[in-house]
Each structure stands twice: as structure tokens, then as C-alpha cells.
Amino acid sequence: MDLIVFDLDGTLLDASATISPYTRETLTRLTERGILYTVATGRALHAARDILQGHGFRLPQAYKNGVLIWNPTEEDYTHHNFLTLPEIQHVVEAVLARGVTPFLFTLEPGNRHAIYHLPLKTAAERELAEAFRTRPDVYVLPAARMPADAEITNVSALGAALAIDAVADLIHDEPDLVAYHGPAIEGEELKWIDIHHRRASKGGAVDVLRQELKADRVVCFGDSDNDLSMFASADEAYAPVNASAEVRAAATAVIGHHDEDGIARFLRDRFHLA
Q: 226 - beta bridge partners?
């Protein structure tokens, strides 16, 4: 039995961050053939739920780069890898020392999601906070209002490229932390960074899903550095041509562009869905 695992942004989704009609029909054909598929994404559940709704995603799903695994049937998280208090303190101090504001993403009792922040310093940070507020089922609040029983899934930040690179260099030397960072859509001079516990990875999530779903083979698709651990765990790993050079080099093969239904077209050929 095969299990297909999709990254979302830059992979399954098109440039408008949606599932195209052609890809939607391809997913329907996978369902009709009884071929299992799910997602492993850097997004949070609340940032992906509406996109996936109605497209047959009924299996457990990995969010926040494997920090959390959500089971739609149980309507609950079945696995998690939270940051510890010392790790949180270290990350927050490192970000603040470079003049950047950390955003702390939490999971709280009742599966409540919230994002907490210290005082915002720049227009880009304020715009980011406003963008977070538009997401369904998530609260954006000052850090002083974070409850004691909140579990922190990850810490993110947006700032000047040099500052973010300095934070990434520091986290790189920490054995229990991992950071992904890159250019920000908010401006060419800005970068984003996302930091979480090293136990959390897409590769680790794929291993859990393989075991729980009793899959014989895992076929995965991804385009960014956070997909490399998933590529290493999968039996077959495919990168769209728009993927980073490192991801393309690690792939079983390079396939079509994500904004030209590259993944769906490959699937129709690979599983004879036409």
C-alpha cells in the first residue's frame, strides 16, 4: 500500500495558495482508486483547514513541520513536540538581542491556538500581526496575556536579513533546536525565521504516519529545506522544478512546476489515473 505525502506551499498548491481544479480532480481519482494521501506542511492547522476542506484529506496530517499531528477523525492532536521553557527563553533572548520581535505560537487546552508577541517595533511586524489576526480560529495577543498552561509549538520572527541570519547561525549550533529561514514576501530586505524543537520534523512525522497507517511505501513531494527530512524518510521523493537546488538534488526526480499542476500531472502518470 502506498501513502502519498504532500507539502503544500510551492508544491501541491498553486501560486494563489489554492488547490487548482486539475489537482482537485486528481485527488478525487486517487480517492476512487483507494490510494492514501495526506499532508506534511509548515502551516498550522488553522492556516490549512479551509484549503484542504472538501478534497478528501481524511488521514492524520502533520503540521508545523511535524511539531503536531492532527487526526481529523478524532478531531484531536495525537502527537506533539513542544519547546521546553529553557529553549523558549534562549530563543526569545536571541531574537530580542538582534532587535527583532518574536511571535510565540501556542497550543492551549481545548485545542485553542494563539500567537503571542512582545511589543512590535516595525511596520512589517505590525502588518504581520494584522495578517495573523485574519486567520480563522486563532488569537493574536500581547505576550503578557499568555496563560501558564500554554504549550509553545514554535517561535517565528520577521526582520532585517542580517538580523535573521544572525539568529539562524546561533540556533544552528543548538543541538535541540532547528530553524528554517528565508526571504520574506513582505519586502526584499526582510527575512523570516521559524524555530522549533529538533525532534519535530516532517521526516519524523512521515515515520509515524507510515507506522500508524501500515504503509508499505511512502511517496512524498516537497520544494523547501524543511522537506529534506521527509525526503530522507520516504521511499520516493519528488521535487517540482521550482524547488530549491538542495531539494532538487535530494529528489528521486524533478517534475513539473507547482503552478502548472506539476504534482497532479505526475500522479496521473505514476498511478495511471488518466
A: none
Domains of the chain: 2-80+200-270 (3.40.50.1000), 85-197 (3.30.1240.10)
Q: What are phi and psi of 221, to 5 degrees?
A: -135, 135
Q: What angle is formed at CA 17 by the lines to CA 123 and CA 43, rounded to 5 degrees?
A: 70
**Separation between Cα atoms, residue 238 and residue 256, nearest integer Å:** 10
| Range 185-188, long-range pairs (CB < 8 A, 24+ positions) | 186/124, 186/127, 186/128, 186/158, 187/124
Instruction: Write the DSSP symbol of residue 66.
Output: G
Mention every residue, 6+ apart, whose C-beta is less than 8 A from residue 19: 12, 13, 27, 51, 52, 55
pLDDT surpassing 80 at residue 211: yes
Residue range 186-198: mean pLDDT, rounded: 88
pTM summary value:
0.88
Radius of gyration for the alpha carbons in the chain, expressed in angstroms and rounded: 18
Distance CA 73, CA 78 (A): 11
